[in-house]
Amino acid sequence: MITSPLLTADVLTKPMINVVSFLKRMRLESDSELIDLSVGNPDLPPHASVIDELIKCSQREDIHGYGNFDGQPVLLENIQRYYRKRYQAEVAKNQIHVIRGVRNLLFSIAYIFVAPGETVLIPSIGYQSYYLATLFNHAEPYLVPMQPEANYVPEVWTLPEDVLARAKLLYLNYPNNPTGSQITREQLTRIVEVCRKYGILLCYDNAYNEIVFDGLSPISLFEIPGAWEIGIEITSMSKLTSLAGWRIAFCVANESIINYIWNYNAVTDSAVYDGFQIAGAKALAHVIEHDDGKRLASIYRKRRDIVMSGFDTAGITYYKPQGGFYMWLNVPEGKTDMDFAAEICRKAQVLLTPGSYYGESGAHNVRLSLTASEDRLQTAADRIAGLI
Ligand SMILES: Cc1ncc(COP(=O)(O)O)c(C=O)c1O
Question: How confident is the model at residue 388 (pLDDT cuts 50, 70, 90)?
Fold first, then answer.
């Protein structure tokens, strides 16, 4: 029998992998009434100009081969314009690498920069790839606690000296999936200082960058002094420009860090299709010229408010999101996250993600994704409220 030394029974039964089959089972048990709010799959279409550009690209004969691995010039230029406009930061072309979505890169980073047995700092509640990338690379995850009172930010400056001394990599993500929290500039500054002091690579996953609420402004890692020394910032076009299926994203770091990634990807991956790169450049241009991130944020803020007001009336408690497009609900005392999600699915026909998917510390919560119309979210909130 063929077996995998990586995907052992122990790994396969971890909630981070197990929850995926739980969600599949729930979907199969349900009927067409199901409102699936388990996945963060943007439901908004890209701008019409982006589709027009893609159609034009598809009719060109010269760009159907392997894509431009160095990045289409128009895309690189628009990434530079984007950084300038959004964050007042100057980025050189050799500090940018265009990638096929963020997810693969999160794994590659662990392979490239961490040796087996070395320590990776992982927020105790977070996007599952951080923990799995560490595990798959036979490195040592060190889970950094997060508390709602500190915006669910891992206060790495409080970690023991010996842990910091052996840490090689820290993953961070704000606006945060799954909690909806946003980091402050002060917190990020303290984290950058720690990473510089101990030579820790800071992987700043800015997948939801512009989706912030209530007067907050988007934050780039490179607004923070010294961040260029130790940081890499990843921006996904899945959420910002609603192009999740196209698999297009980009990372920014100093030239040396980018070169490591470039060399690794050059032998393990291929470039994004040129049509997606050129139309993706159009999408970024639209964001830059029309301040489209603000429009996006206001759509998700309205959706958040609809769900919050339904839950407030019913006495359902949650962490108030400051950004991103998720809500992090508390599971009632005495229930597990899986049981609670299964009950909501069976009785209310709304599918939510059990919080342990994001780490064992998430086992007292479930995550609701705001990627559905206002009407559907209202119905979902009413149905869940009806159960309580
Ligand atoms: C925090 C975070 N990082 C990365 C990703 C993946 O982004 P991409 O679609 O670019 O792979 C997601 C998607 O849900 C996410 O929530």
Answer: confident
Name the architecture of domain 48-290. 3-Layer(aba) Sandwich (3.40)
In this predicted structure, the answer to whether residue 10 has a pLDDT above a threshold of 90 is: no
Atom of ligand 1 nearest to the CA of 126: 1
Domain boundaries in the chain? 9-45+293-387, 48-290
**d(CA 207, ligand 1 centre) in Å:** 6
205 CB less than 6 Å from ligand 1?
A: yes
Residue 200 has pLDDT above 90, yes or no: yes
- What class is the 9-45+293-387 domain? alpha beta
Q: What is the C-alpha to C-alpha distance for residues 202 and 192, in angstroms, rounded to an integer? A: 8
Tens-digit pLDDT profile for residues 149-161: 999 999 999 999 9
Name the residue of 177, 179, 272 whose CB sits within 8 Å of the most ligand 1 atoms, as the mutation to test its pocket. 177
What's the 102 CA to ligand 1 centre distance in angstroms?
A: 6
61 with 380: CB under 8 angstroms? no
